[in-house]
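Figure 3 (text version): structure tokens given as input.
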């Protein structure tokens, strides 16, 4: 099939590349001409494990192309994916100006039947708004459907190529037939393609992310209880995670969730609920708990350094909101950095992939190291904010030799308390103190 993907951000680039990998001819569109030039010349613009290899392969085979010309991209395409940003407005609602603006332009360019697919995370009712935007300029035959993505940063290629499920919102028989053909190579093992109406598909995406955010916040509250009651959160996590009604995933306590999806999707669902006069109290609590949890590690640091943090210097390992990504949007590490700096501390940070983005955002607010051990130089203590694999088994002797106070504040529970005691390192983690 010939496919156009509008938007070359995280979702758009993964979507376009993975569809090309199964033999489709894909043209990705972006208004950023410099970005288009980089991608056309083989320079990938995001970090995602496994993506670069298939990106370069399909670029070489001319199955993956990039352009700034929307008309050229959609001219021969049977399917048009909208993978555009939907940033939160001040009131928490999703801003649809990019989606609807492109939809109106598409209406001016259509000359034959196309399927326009919302891949972006959008509020319930957006498919209908896109349809109306296209109809402002085109009265021919077309379908607008919802096909939300369920990609986890760090394993997005695997998630796309071997999805747990594919959700498609449409009642069009013609669109259903095309979408079944499109996704057939991805569900050969029998995982379901679930068809439903557009509004249900749109809500499914928000419901999924909000439920996962709820699991995280619930476990973070359990960790707070563990610290106060003397229980061990790892034991509790294993005890409840073995119940298949609950499951093992998203039960690890830490310093709160971040990233491009959970924060804005929770906000957007709360806003959508309020627009139909429903008070989504659980999700409001999820947001509140997450905000508190982001401060929790700083509270431990302040409790340890009773004299205050002015003139103290910290090493910080990890800036990305999770491992295996360079994404720092709403990363808990940023909250820690900002609060420590406000309290008079200085920081040198290291992250395997996120430092270029962090340097753009933070400038000279903090220092940056070339590796994790260089970050320890002249530091009073170490803070672990992201659970990168290379941080899991460090050289504790090098840490001891570098830190002035021989103390680690671990926001991801990477280490065993008894191991740290053997090295005479004071250790503060989440839900295990």
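Below: residues designed for each position.
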């Amino acid at each position: 099939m010939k496919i156009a993907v509008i938007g070359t951000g995280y979702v758009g680039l993964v979507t376009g590349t993975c569809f090309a990998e199964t033999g489709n001819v894909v043209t990705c569109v972006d208004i950023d001409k410099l970005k288009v030039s980089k991608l056309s010349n083989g320079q990938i613009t995001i970090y995602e494990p496994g993506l670069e290899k298939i990106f370069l392969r399909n670029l070489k085979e001319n199955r993956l192309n990039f352009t700034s010309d929307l008309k050229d991209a959609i001219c021969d395409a049977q399917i048009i994916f909208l993978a555009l940003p939907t940033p939160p407005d001040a009131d928490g609602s999703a801003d649809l100006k990019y989606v609807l603006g492109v939809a109106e332009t598409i209406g001016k360019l259509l000359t034959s039947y196309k399927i326009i697919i919302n891949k972006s995370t959008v509020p319930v009712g957006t498919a209908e708004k896109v349809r109306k935007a296209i109809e402002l300029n085109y009265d021919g035959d077309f379908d607008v459907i919802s096909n939300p993505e369920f990609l986890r940063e760090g394993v997005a290629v695997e998630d796309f190529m071997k999805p747990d499920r594919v959700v498609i919102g449409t009642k069009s028989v013609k669109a259903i037939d095309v979408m079944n053909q499109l996704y057939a190579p991805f569900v050969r093992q029998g995982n379901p393609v679930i068809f439903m109406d557009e509004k249900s598909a749109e809500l499914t995406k928000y419901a999924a992310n909000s439920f996962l955010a709820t699991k995280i916040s619930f476990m973070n509250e359990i960790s707070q209880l563990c610290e106060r009651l003397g229980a061990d959160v790892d034991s509790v996590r294993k005890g409840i995670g073995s119940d298949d009604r609950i499951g093992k995933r998203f039960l690890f306590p830490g310093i709160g969730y971040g990233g491009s999806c959970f924060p804005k999707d929770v906000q957007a669902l709360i806003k959508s609920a309020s627009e139909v006069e429903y008070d989504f109290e659980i999700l409001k609590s999820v947001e509140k708990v997450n905000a508190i949890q982001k401060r929790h590690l700083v509270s431990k640091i302040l409790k340890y350094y009773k004299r205050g943090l002015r003139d103290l210097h910290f090493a910080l390992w990890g800036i990305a909101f999770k491992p295996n990504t360079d994404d720092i949007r709403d990363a808990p590490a940023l909250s820690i950095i900002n609060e420590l700096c406000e309290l008079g501390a200085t920081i040198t940070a290291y992250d395997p992939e996120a430092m270029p983005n962090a340097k753009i955002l933070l400038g000279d607010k903090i220092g940056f190291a070339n590796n994790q051990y260089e970050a320890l130089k002249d530091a009073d203590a170490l803070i672990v904010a992201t659970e990168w694999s290379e941080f899991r088994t460090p050289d504790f002797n090098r840490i001891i030799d570098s830190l002035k106070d021989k103390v680690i504040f671990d926001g991801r529970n990477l280490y065993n308390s008894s191991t740290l005691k053997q090295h005479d390192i004071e250790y503060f983690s989440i839900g295990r103190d």
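The mean pLDDT is 96.
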